[in-house]
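Milestone M4 deliverable, item 7.
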Amino acid sequence: MWTFRLPFSSFPYVVGIMDMGSPHPPNLPVAPHNRTVSPEPDRRRYRAMIVITTDHAAHDPNRFTLPTDTRPYWEVPARADTLLATLGAAGIASKPAKDHGLAPIARIHDAGYLRFLETAFVRWQALPNAAPILRAPAYAVRHKGRCPDAVAGQAGWYLSSVTAPIVEATFAAAVGSAHAAIEAADTVLSGERIAYALCRPPGHHAHTDMAGGFCYLNNAAIAAQRMLDAGTGPLAVLDFDVHHGNGTQQIFYEREDVFYASVHGDPAGLYPWFAGYADEAGQGRGIGWNLNLPLPPGTRNEGFTAATGQALDAIAAKRPAALIVSLGFDAQEGDPAANLSVNAEGFGVIGQQVAALGLPTLLVQEGGYLVERLGPNLTAFLTGLGVV
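Output delivered:
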């Protein structure tokens, strides 16, 4: 069933809604994607783009970093604030998302992992001389270990690196971010052509039972499962964050209902290091449902957009019912977390490419850490998409 809307109570986070015309029902045959797009995309009038806001500022691990830390925590509240201000300057309204509870999140994430995220900070603070931030003192070798009882040991089991610490507001912020993605998925299910979930914290590095890379809950995967549970499918995910979405890949790697295509910096020299290589094509029933297009350091607009075009060609061949875009702007030249050299012009071309595919589309915000470039990059992408 294509229409899917439930009367949930209010829960604040961020989702944008854009009307692109008449509803696009599931499983409608899709024309092959044309990598070559017109510099002037079809700019049909949109009824609205609605942005849903939240108080995410309390999740700010950077406030607790130490002078001895090698670098600051780049995933800061100013990221989402800047993106939201950019949307507001474009005249785009806002409203709160709804509280969808933990059930749709548990469709993707392990129950023990969710219990850890929910209780870890309180348990940590009950220990003598606990710092206001929980970081793992050691990391598990999963194939040789088991999850311990102590909260410090569980941190090593469930947190893959220092890039996913826990502070008091982390769980609430992560759940709110997931609710934004769920709300955006429901918006597309109701017949809207495109929706935008401005998620903070991001999600594509989150595995079924492990956090990492600033990510705790996998917003894109949760949204995809929400749509599949409503009867749509198959789906596709285009991820052009500069870091490979190792969590999204892990979640769908043995499945044939979600095609994952990622364009990213070569993990041989960039986080997440251990996944994202070109020979990772899926496993079991998922063989052929995973596409990685790693790019060398310094890749500029032409090389990056050629790769996103290739990814969209592969997506079109799967004839998905809808597209989820893991929207990252950290391929930007000069981003502190990356090594590519894309700029706003390149993100504008990607917007045109996505628009040319013609699918119902859900945008889920991922990375981008050069705060002063987030606004121009979002504007360029949405302009290419035909939204602004």
